[in-house]
Amino acid sequence: MPSQFYHNPRCSKSRQALALLAEQGVSPQVIEYLRQPPSAAELAAIVKKLGRPLRDIVRSKEAREAGIDLATLDDAGLLRALAAHPAALERPLFVHGAKAALGRPPEAVLAIL
Questions:
Q1: Whole-number Å distance between alpha carbons of 58 and 97
Q2: With CB atoms 3.0 to 4.6 Å apart as the test, which of 5, 56, 61, 91 could cross-link to 52 if both were Cys?
Q3: pTM for the complete prediction?
Q4: Other C-beta atoms within 10 Å of 51: how many?
């Protein structure tokens, strides 16, 4: 089953979640999302697989620093803003087949295996 791991190597939670997947023998495609930001359409697909509100994958402090006004944006606008400012994305995000998980805590990625 193809899987992707949206990773920030500087983030300890992201590194921990990736290590937990490796312990389970899972080798996802690792995407350093700060270097290769997902498009708005890719983010929409991830959010759908998460089954959670879009705003659950937003880091509010980083969003404010990027000039993203969460109070005034609808979901389409927020998706475009996150694609343009990937540092405002919560991490890590793990996509495995038809499901996705936010690795907060890191062990949450194991729930969709």
A1: 22
A2: 56
A3: 0.95
A4: 10
Active site residues: 11
Biggest distance spanned by C-alpha atoms of the chain = 43
- Pairing status of strand 29-32 against strand 93-96: unpaired
Q: What is the DSSP string of 44-90?
A: HHHHHHHTS-GGGGB-HHHHHHTT--TTT--HHHHHHHHHH-GGGB-
Give the domain 3-112 fold: Glutaredoxin (3.40.30)
Q: Profile the chain (113 residues) by mean pLDDT over runs of 10 residues.
A: 93 97 97 98 98 97 97 97 98 97 97 97
Domain edges within the chain: 3-112
